[in-house]
Amino acid sequence: MSKIAKAFAGGKAFIPFITCGDPDMKTTAAVVRAAAANGADLIELGIPFSDPTAEGPVIQGANLRALEGGATTDKVFALVRELRKDVTVPMVFMTYANVVFSYDAEKFIATCGEIGIDGLILPDLPYEEKEEFLPLCRQYGVDLISLIAPTSENRIAMIAREAEGFIYLVSSLGVTGMRSEIKTDLASIVKVIRENTDVPCAIGFGISTPEQAGKMAAISDGAIVGSAIIRLLEQHGKDAPQYVGEYVKSMKDAILPFNQ
Amino acid sequence: MTNPNGRFGIHGGQYIPETLMNAVIELEQAYNHYKNDPQFCAELSELFNEYAGRPSRLYYAAKMTADLGGAKIYLKREDLNHTGAHKINNVLGQALLAKKMGKTRLIAETGAGQHGVATATAAALMGMECVVFMGEEDTKRQALNVYRMRLLGAEVIPVKTGTATLKDAVSEAMREWTSRIADTHYCLGSVMGPHPFPTIVRDFQAVISKEIKEQMRQKEGRLPDAVIACVGGGSNAIGSFYHFIEDEGVRLIGCEAAGRGIDTFETAATISTGRIGIFHGMKSYFCQDKFGQIAPVYSISAGLDYPGVGPEHAYLHDIGRAEYVAVTDEEAVQAFEYLARTEGIIPAIESAHAVAHAMKLAPTLGKDKIIVITISGRGDKDCAAIARYRGEDIHE
């Protein structure tokens, strides 16, 4: 069983997203530890990118603050090395194809394997382009996470059959960010996914409240939350770890009742 | 020139969110169907000729030729097209295609505003809704074009993120497209972005080189020795080059914006200073730092102020078929003034980059040689900015 699969073995997973270096690496480390201590099953670490085309204004802001604060890929690797001394929860990177490609894809993915990064989410790397990095991911034991969107339709089965680690099901059209309501018929997408793979499926984009997380967990294997956490960092800066910890606990508590 | 996966050598591809994949697949299928449909071709041809004013003139610049004392110079007058630039060629093609696909809304990015104006124009003509994303910085540099778009019924959204220029307008248009696909076509303005855009835009712009070839045969009975065009994303350049790619004797020269110089950070010369990367849906050359962060670029020309270049140009560079040179702000402004005084033609500051290089090249060639410069647009929009560059404070 891959380390990512273990994150889902104990029931519905709660997956927080944190942009590394927002506002600084020391705060990120404290936020990750707070999330892990409060029940996060898997943590998505964002490596900032100058032009994050899949992100809404909140996460764009985090990318900008992190880069202005001097965050680099090397500093993110150093952060993970430090965290891995005591944090055992599975961790994946979320970034953009150019961050991996321009670092030298082999050097980047080999480093992920070496420092204990379990997967890689690249929102601008669809099924058609995954060969760009998949052979290297296999070589170094890093799961390349597949995304499925409300518009995937006839592509769902094809993507699901080759998925590794977990499937990131995008809840809504558009970019990341909080939404008051998620209208997509996700249950029917999950049904097609289940018919084609045993790989767990977590839903992200637009989830911010415990109620929404519960609804998503009820129809899938977990909920991913980004913008709502980034908002806490935006509001509280270096004091954010405590608030993120409390928030993660409230979300984890909300999805627990949906465990069979 | 494209392989089935939208690759030009190693460049191109479809590096976009899954949310958009079915949209680009649907677009490719529709394009492959309509490009060979006689009725579609007849309608587009009618729009090109009767509405846009094609074919555009191939003008022999006698005074410029005599003044520079070398190669014979012809100007391909895309500036005479309706809306004042080559952008209308691509926009009429895409708008007609979108309409056939049942789309009712066009969105577009724009830098100098020429593509935005062209898109707003086509939307007005075809009764479609239109939203144009434009960097806030560019809305200030090109205020007149903002007004033109609004006059044509389009909504102009100033983009405040990042460097608030063309790349940010592209990012924001992509974000908008992921949120509203069913009724909306993203009318991309250059030979960039994910497949099939670089191919579709090239095919609609290829009318430029098709006409140059015919007009050259009529006027000179032979092919030119060099074709020169400016390159931002590269749509007027690829349009000017395309039908000459197989004619090895024709030099193809793309002129990038060097801004304050390629040895400074204030440049937009992607092939001269960038390296290979993946951004805005394509693999190509980009101005970026060692960690792949896209660099803030600079040029006096809002239309060339982009940190990447279309994948087919990257490929033509790799195989050595086309040459790419860098032209500074100062050289472009001098060429802008020179063409105005010498031929009575005010070129767009973008096109002035191509004129500037031709001014260096022509004197080095014999009088039996022929150069074609594509004047991609007219320069009315640039007059206030160039006056300011020269220290005259005029307001529109």
Task: Describe the 3D structure.
The complex is a heterodimer of chains A (260) and B (396). Chain A contains eleven helices and nine strands. Helices cover 47% and strands 13% of the residues of chain A. Chain A is α/β, with parallel strands linked by helices and 260 residues long. In chain A, helix 8 (186-196) links the parallel strand 7 and strand 8 (201-204). Chain A has one domain: Aldolase class I (TIM Barrel), CATH 3.20.20. Chain A starts with a helix and ends in a 5-residue tail after the last helix. Chain B is built from 16 helices and 14 strands. Chain B is of the alpha/beta class. The mean pLDDT of chain B is 96. Chain B has helices spanning 18-34, 38-51, 62-68, 87-100, 114-126, 136-141, 143-151, 166-179, 197-205, 207-220, 235-241, 270-273, 311-318, 329-343, 349-361, 383-389; strands spanning 7-8, 11-15, 58-60, 72-77, 105-110, 129-135, 155-159, 184-186, 226-231, 251-259, 275-279, 281-286, 322-328, 370-375. In chain B, the strands form three sheets. Chain B has a six-stranded mixed β-sheet with strand order 3-4-14-9-10-13, with helices on both faces. The termini of chain B are far apart. Chain A binds chain B through residues 49-51, 53-54, 56-57, 60, 67, 72-74, 96-103, 123-129, 132, 147-155, 159, 170, 173-175, and chain B through 5, 13-23, 161-162, 167-168, 171, 174-175, 178-181, 275-281, 283, 286, 288, 290-294.
